[in-house]
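Repro:
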Amino acid sequence: MSPTSPSPAPAAAPTWWRSPATWGAILVILHVVGTVGTALGYAHLLLPLTPLNLLVCAGVVMAFTGAESPWRWALTMFLGFGIEVMGVATGWLFGDYSYGSGLGPKALEVPLLMGVLWWLLLLGTHHWSERLLSWKGRTVSPVVRAALAATMMTALDGAIEPVAIRAGWWTWHAGHIPWTNYLTWWVAALALGLLWRDVDDLKTNRLSGLLVVVFALFFVALNLIPWTL
């Protein structure tokens, strides 16, 4: 570059509505409002908005995925939904359970948004699994990453279950949560993680990682505070 050549212009910062930080803040605010409102006695107004909240979360995360990823994530949602359909229909996979009406429209007795939830948790847990295992530049085994992410997903389900039962999202007909529920969660999450083991978007979506942390804090809080519908 000659002394008289102009310096290259700095890259323009993304507009606020295209910034991941903006949408990350929105995800946090939504769940803070939900937690505080539930603690103040407004669970009957806020928890019925869960389907809308899941759609907003999914839209935000999907907006920041790679251009080649949406078809993969649509298939992941379909597979997650299919696992739930088999579980409800047979009672063999998770245990004997059924869904209520609190998670929105259903097909084959399963809320359509269950596939969305499986996808969101898969992305978020793989983000953290990759970050933890690759600390200090270590090479990450796809199998180990998928196994750790599956363990995170199963642990998060453990926090979701009591809230879901209290909210009437689903019911265990035996009156307790069977161990097969957690085993199936782990195996299915492991299989889905291995399916997309070479897809970078599975490991690098920061908003999905933030969302999993927000989900975990939200459900832990709702397990600790008193509330009724």
